[in-house]
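Q: How would the C-alpha cells look for this protein?
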Amino acid sequence: YELSPETTTNTSITQDTRATQSPSPTEMTPALANQESLSRTSTNPTPTYKVYKRRFFGLGQLVLMNIVVSWDWISFAPVSKSSAEYFNRSESVINWLSTAVLFTFCVAAPVTIYILNKSGPKASIITAACLLLVGNWVRYGGTRTSHFGAVMFGQILVGFAQPFVLSAPTRYSNLWFSERGRVSATAVASLANAFGAALGQLIDPFWVTNASDIPNMVLYVCIISSVACVPSFFIPSAPPTPASASASHTLNHEPIHVQATLSKLSRSIEFWLLFLPFAVYVGLFNSMSRSEEH
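A: Here is the predicted structure in C-alpha cell form.
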C-alpha cells in the first residue's frame, strides 16, 4: 500500500497544524496560565482566624489577679500607724513591707519572662496563684501571732507573684484576642493593678480603727485573695485555633529570641519614649502609695 503524493502532503500539513495548536510544556497560553494559577491558589487557601467566648473567662481572671496582688502589696501602707503599734515597730519598718515587694518584683522578672515564653500565660497565672495563696496565709499567720518576720516572708512571696500576673496580659491577649480587641484586653487587665491599689487604700482604713483590728484586716484580704485565685486553675491554656496571625506563631511554638528582641528594643526610639515616662509614673505612684498615711 503506497500513499499518493497528495495524501502525504495533506498528512504532513495536518500534523504541522496540530503541533502548532498544542502548546509546548515551556510555552503556555494566558488562559491555561490563569487556570494553573487558580489551581495553585485553591491548594493554598487563606487562613481563617476565630475568637472564642471563653477568652473572657481568662481575661476576667487576669483582672481579679491583678487587683488582689496589688491590694496585698499595699495592705499595710494605708494603716501604717496602727500596724506599727500592733507589731511594736516604727512606721519606717512597716513601710518596708511594701518596699520588699518592689525588690522581689525585680528578682522574679527574668523567671517570669522565661515561663511566659516557654509555657504560656496559663502557667504564669497558676504560678502567681500558688504564690498568692501561700503568701497570704503566711502573712495572716504571722500577723495573728505578731511575728513580723513571718509577715515579711509572706510579703516577699506576694512580691514574687506580682510580675507573673502583671506581665501576662500582653501574652494572653496576643493568644486569645484578635488584632482589633487585643489593645483593649491588655489595657483592662493591666489597669486592674492600679485599681487594686486604690481599693486597698480606700477599704483598709475602714476595717482598721485601732491596732487590734490589724489581724482581721489581713484575714479579710486573705479570704478575698484566696477566692480570686481558685479559678486560675481552670482557665484554658490556649484556644483550639489561632485568633490572629501572631497567635498562630505562638500556637506553633515558634521560638522567641529574647536577646535579639532586647537588642532591637534598645535601638528603638519609640520604646524609650514609652519606657521613660512610664517608669517615672510607676516610681511616683509606688512611692506615694506607700507613704500615703504620712
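Residues 1-9, 11-28 have pLDDT under 50 and may be disordered.

Residues 282 and 288 are 10 Å apart (CA to CA).

Upvote if useful.
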